[in-house]
Structures are given as structure tokens and as C-alpha cells.
Specification:
Blueprint: H1 13-22, H2 29-39, E1 44-47, H3 54-65, E2 75-78, H4 82-95, E3 104-107, H5 113-122, E4 126-129, H6 131-140, E5 150-153, H7 156-161, H8 165-173, E6 180-185, H9 190-199, E7 204-207, E8 218-225, H10 230-241, E9 246-249, H11 253-265, E10 270-273, H12 279-290, E11 296-299, E12 314-317, H13 324-331, E13 341-348, H14 351-362, E14 367-368, H15 374-395, H16 399-410, H17 415-427
Parallel strand pairs: 1-6, 1-7, 2-4, 2-5, 3-4, 5-6, 8-13, 8-14, 9-11, 9-12, 10-11, 12-13
The structure holds adenosine monophosphate.
């Protein structure tokens, strides 16, 4: 399962092209597990949280099966909230960019029902809705579910918690018994299993094995930043922590390329690896990193697989990973062999929700810190220089230099003036 790629799925080129355009390198674990099973038409109980790529996991097989010429609803996704409906509809829209004349409609309460009815009358292939509004349309006979081939219950545990059980059952009963039913849920309590038993046909229970975070010596820190500030945040941390070897993770190949270029342009010793490079190219970069000829390696999750460099002092999540398991894999690259390590995560905008899931999943403490200011960096640099000064005083013969300083003091300057001026000169170098 590990090496399954998007190209390996039996899906049309138009969907593959859309996935490529989105910049996704590799299916996430839940996608690898569920897409092949779902394509076969089987019922599924998928244990997956938000942020694991579950939407794409059910959207791709649905899109693959749509018969465009039939404009009655063929798939329905039931979601607990209006926000999720919109998000799911957006994901469907992105994945179907290259599918002509495919219509998707999110329907939720609070939106004018007349408009929804007009669009439904024109014909839609996929309906994504909240239980209450779906029932409303079913009762008005403005939504005909007799031709539904696939039903998705998204965030099923959440829907049951919100008291939608009866509504869901009502909706399921109006669809054909021959339908495929996909149930996705972060947790699988007994009520979910009961629902599955009643409305699914021999479902396969698919869940990604939960790996434990096994590196207690890693200090995990996150910074709230903006997308545009991520590069600046990274360079400040690199400056302040004075790291020898660091690994920086981005979510896509394009972002690896861009960040590598930006770091090099700022004089950092960096290089990148990702799946579009030949094995030979990757090996070359890895060797340079291992030998310390480059200090910063920028990578995607896929390309970083198998990286085992003992002295990585820090892992940066330049992007919050889409899967909590990835977080564990990424930060496990530091703090090896009893050494301490840092894991820094940059969180911009909605990434905070992914971080919340990661915290829950890994049950680890990720503390928030303020991005170091330019003054912090200045102080840190001065401290580093002064540490070196002490080292030189203790370990070198300075007689000649002392004479030079004494001469200058003869001209009326204090030793403090001279030391401060020298510090200035070094800092500006
Ligand atoms: P979800 O769990 O469906 O809420 O997805 C979380 C985020 O991951 C969404 O922004 C998706 O667009 C993104 N995503 C889905 N599949 C992949 C993938 N294979 N690689 C990278 N990102 C993905």
C-alpha cells in the first residue's frame, strides 16, 4: 500500500489531471486504503478525521462513476454543517475542473430555497447537503433520490452527536437499496456500527494504523504566521537557533522548489528534494546533506521517506501536514539517539484546524511561541559573538593584541569603547 500513487488508481485522466493541478504528490493513507475499495463499488466505514484527505477519498470514486448525460442526482453527500458542505462542494469542484458539464450543488439551511430549487430543476449530478435541508427538499419533492448510486455520510459521529440520526435514516430510506454507502467518521462508537449494520451492505472497516509518537526529547513549538511571512519566520529561526542540519517540509513539490530558491537567494546553504527528481539527483542531494555540505534540506513527505540522518537538529513544518501521521513521521527525523531536537510548525490561517487535529491525534504538547523579532536576533547574534570572545580570551595568547589596545587607550579611549566598536564591526560583517 505504501507505494500506491495517484497514477496507479483506475480513474480517468481528467481526474488525474485535476489532482496534478492541485499539486498533490501522493495519496494520503486514507486515500490509499479507501479509493481502490470504493472504486469496486463496496460499502466502506472509513475512520478518518478532518485533515486526512478524506474528502478527496470519497469524491474521486464518485466522480469516476458519474454518467454526465443523466442529469438527475447520482450521488449525495450528507454533512453535519453548512461550512463542511461548502468545503466538500469546493473540493468536488476542484477535482472535476476538467470534467465538462458536471454539476454539483451544496444545499444547506439559511440559503434561499427558491434558488436551490431552480438549480435542482436544471439538473445536478452531485448533491451535498445538511440533513435538515435535504429532508425539506425531499418533502417538497424538489429532490428525487431514486437514482442515487452513492451515499456518503461525512463526519457521521458528528451528525449523530448533533441529533441527526432520524433525519439521516429518513434520507437513506428514500434511496435505492442497491446504492453504495460510504461512511466516514473520526470515531466509531457503537451507534455508528448500528447505523452501518442497518444501512450498509457488508462494509469494509478501513482505518489507518495509529503510530505512536516516540521521541519525547523533541521540543515542539508552533508559530502563528501569515503565508507571506513564512519565509521570514523561517530565516529568523534559522538565524536565532544557529542550527547545523535542519529539515524543512512543504506540502507540494512546487513549494519545495520555491522555498529552496528563496533560501539560496538569501545566502542559506539549502537544497531540495521531491518526487519529480531522478533517483540519482536525489541521492546526490542526500549525500551532500549527510556530509553537512548543505545545512538545510527542503523536502516533500514522499521524497523524505527513508531519510535517516542522525544529526538533524530541527524539523520545520513550513506547511502543516495534511495528515497527522505525516506530522509524526516528519518530526521523528530529529531528536534521534537520545539527542534533543526541535520541531517548529508554521501555522497560517486555516492551518490552525489541522494543528488542532494533530494535537488531538498525537496527544502531544505543541506550545505556541512568538516569532522572534529583529531585536531578538540582534541580541542572539551579539551573545554568540561574546561567547566566542570568552573562548578566545581563555585559549589564546593575546599579548600582542593587548599592546595594540593599550596604545589606543593612550589616545583617551576606554577599553569599553574599543570592545563595543569591535563588536559592531563583527556584527556588520
Ligand atoms: P480533508 O481531510 O478532506 O479535509 O482534507 C484536508 C486537506 O488536504 C484539503 O485541503 C485537501 O485539499 C488536502 N489534500 C487532500 N488530499 C491530499 C493529498 N493527497 N496530498 C496533499 N493534500 C491533500
Amino acid at each position: 500500500m505504501e507505494d500506491l500513487r495517484f497514477e496507479d488508481f483506475e480513474i480517468s485522466d481528467s481526474i488525474k489531471k485535476a489532482i496534478k493541478k492541485l499539486g498533490f504528490d501522493e495519496p494520503t493513507p486514507i486515500q490509499k486504503l479507501t479509493i481502490p475499495v470504493s472504486l469496486k463499488g463496496k460499502d466502506i466505514i472509513g475512520q478518518a478525521q478532518t485533515g486526512t484527505g478524506k474528502t478527496l477519498a470519497f469524491a474521486v470514486p464518485i466522480l469516476e462513476k458519474i454518467f454526465i448525460k443523466d442529469t438527475s442526482p447520482q450521488a449525495i453527500v450528507i454533512c453535519p454543517t453548512r461550512e463542511l458542505c461548502i468545503q466538500v462542494a469546493e473540493e468536488f469542484a476542484k477535482l472535476s475542473t476538467f470534467m465538462k458539464k458536471l454539476y454539483i450543488l451544496p444545499i444547506y439551511g439559511g440559503q434561499a430555497i427558491g434558488r436551490q430549487i431552480r438549480v435542482l430543476n436544471k439538473g445536478v449530478h452531485v448533491v451535498i447537503g445538511t440533513p435538515g435541508r435535504l429532508i425539506d427538499h425531499i418533502e417538497r419533492k424538489t429532490l428525487d433520490l431514486s437514482g442515487i448510486e452513492t451515499v456518503v455520510l461525512d463526519e457521521a459521529d458528528e451528525m449523530l452527536d448533533m441529533g441527526f440520526r432520524e433525519d439521516i435514516e429518513k434520507i437513506l430510506k428514500t434511496t435505492s437499496k442497491k446504492r453504495q454507502t460510504l461512511l466516514f467518521s473520526a470515531t466509531i462508537p457503537r451507534q455508528i456500527m448500528n447505523l452501518a449494520k442497518k444501512y450498509q451492505n457488508k462494509p469494509e472497516l478501513l482505518k489507518v494504523p495509529h503510530h505512536k509518537l516516540t521521541a519525547p526529547d523533541i521540543e515542539q513549538i508552533y508559530y502563528e504566521t501569515r503565508e507571506k511571512m513564512k519565509l521570514e519566520t523561517l530565516t529568523r529561526l534559522l538565524d536565532i537557533y544557529d542550527l547545523n542540519l535542519s529539515l524543512v517540509f512543504c506540502n507540494t513539490k512546487r513549494r519545495v522548489d520555491r522555498l529552496t530558491r528563496d533560501l539560496k537567494a538569501r545566502g542559506f546553504s539549502a537544497d531540495g528534494i521531491h518526487g519529480d527528481m531522478s533517483q540519482n539527483q536525489r541521492d546526490k542531494v542526500m549525500n551532500k546533506f549527510r556530509k553537512g555540505k548543505i545545512e538545510i534540506l527542503v523536502a516533500t513527505d514522499v521524497a523524505a521517506r527513508g531519510i535517516d540522518v542522525p544529526n538533524v537538529e530541527a524539523v520545520f513544518n513550513y506547511d502543516v501536514p495534511n495528515d497527522s501521521e505525516y506530522y509524526i513521521h516528519r518530526i521523528g527525523r530529529t531528536g534521534r539517539a537520545g539527542k534533543a531536537g526541535y520541531a517548529f510548525t508554521f501555522v497560517a490561517g486555516k492551518e490552525i484546524y489541522k494543528l488542532r487535529d494533530i494535537r488531538k491525534y498525537t496527544k502531544s504538547t505543541i506550545k505556541q511561541e512568538k516569532i522572534p523579532s529583529l531585536r531578538d536576533i540582534e541580541n542572539k547574534k551579539a551573545n554568540l559573538i561574546l561567547e566566542k570572545v570568552v573562548e578566545v580570551i581563555e585559549n589564546s595568547n593575546l599579548d600582542k593584541n593587548i599592546k595594540n589596545v593599550e596604545e589606543l587607550m593612550g589616545e583617551g579611549y576606554t577599553s569599553l569603547d574599543i570592545a563595543a566598536a569591535l563588536l559592531n564591526m563583527i556584527k556588520e560583517k
